Amino acid sequence: MYKYIEKIFTFLYPIFRKWGLGSSSASYFSLLLNIIVLCVLAYVIYVIFRLILVTIMAVIAQKTKTKFDDLLVTNKTAKYIAHLIPLLFIYKSVPIILDRFEYWEGFFGKLVGIYIVILVLWIIRTIFNALRDYLKLKPRYSDKPIDSFIQVIMIVLWAVGITVIISKLFDIDQKELLTILGAVSAVIILIFRDTILGFVSSVQVSINDMVRIGDWITMDRFGADGDVIEINLATVKVRNFDNTTTTIPTYSLSSDSFQNWRGMLNSDGRRIKRHILIKTSSIRFLEEAELNDLKKIHLISDYIDTRKLEIDEYNTANKIDKSIAINGRNLTNLGLFRKYITEYLFNYPELNKDMLMLCRQLQSTSHGVPLEVYAFSHDKRFENYEYIMSDIFDHIIASVRYFDLEIFETATENEFPG
After folding, report:
1. Full-prediction pTM beyond 0.70?
2. Phi-psi bin for 191: left (phi > 0), alpha (psi -120 to 50), beta?
3. Measured between alpha carbons, how far is residue 197 from residues 193, 200, 222, 311 in Å?
4. Domain spans in the chain, listed from the N-terminal domain onward
5. pLDDT tens digit string along 99-152?
6. Exposed, middle or buried by CB within 10 Å (0-12, 13-18, 19+), for 207?
7. What's the topology of domain 207-262?
8. Mechanosensitive ion channel MscS domain spans which residues (predicted)?
9. Which DSSP letter does residue 223 get?
10. Which helix (H) or strand (E) holds 372?
């Protein structure tokens, strides 16, 4: 092929010399016409190969079942390959056309060579983009940080490409160039610090399965609270529930603390853990008449009968003086209310009865006694979960007064006597 190219671009100079032109004039005229011929031929080659490659790839994409070739068409891989063929033709032709112009031969040869390297990297990039899109269509890869791995590969390829470009541009041997780059590696590490940290973190995130695309994460430091929509080498993008987007450095996932709700979403229930504060001064023993009134509450009527019988038998057997309520065993309004809440939770249809469910008393505080509900709702969707939790506590707060208890509230100016 090289011989045919040489014949195309060398026959003009002898013709001009036969016509009586000087060596210099013949060289410039033949150069001008050769450049025109080169441009025309390169364009014709580009058009022909673009038509052939794009058509062939489109036909293959239509006839095959796989989506990968369709994605190659979408990413215009064939179009970029069609650019490469006339460039190779130009690269081979430049030394022949500029044979009598050594300086320009070296300059344009390097320029075309650099363009070819960049174009090859761009073609590889389109192939990797097609591969990324193809893998994301597969359920097993849809939540994997594929972008991070592709970016790492492309960084390595660009590093190799830049090395080749520099060696061509300055006529430096690639081994010598790598030696020089090794000497300035500290500066390179400083410049690409975030990229290197991101790469290491991406590997850790993937190997340890810390975060997947689609996970709901919470990271207070960055104000992130929503679903992960993208994981790449430098950043993790989170679409918050208020439809804003938070960008988190990838290395922060391995260096800082964050909360991943995937375990909850994959479990059988979403936890409800909330308490109310009962005024300490409203907690007391219950009298006989009050117990009889509370028996009307059907959820605890049997419990009151059973517990009252046990307590009376114990007090009688031990000859307890019940003229003072503190003596012996007694029922308190808080204890009975706690039992009522427990029974209410077990009868609430939206809670998972197979998971932990209780109403417990926490350590007393200066604001009163915390009474906490700990249970799990079947429905884990945010809006339904919030409705279930609110419905439960609406009932609990409204039920407090039936047990002669009070909920702690900070006093306002209007509550103080004036």
Report:
1. no
2. alpha
3. 6, 5, 18, 67
4. 2-142, 207-262, 270-410
5. 655 656 666 767 777 777 888 888 888 888 888 878 777 777 766 667 767 777
6. exposed
7. SH3 type barrels. (2.30.30)
8. 194-262
9. T
10. strand 369-377
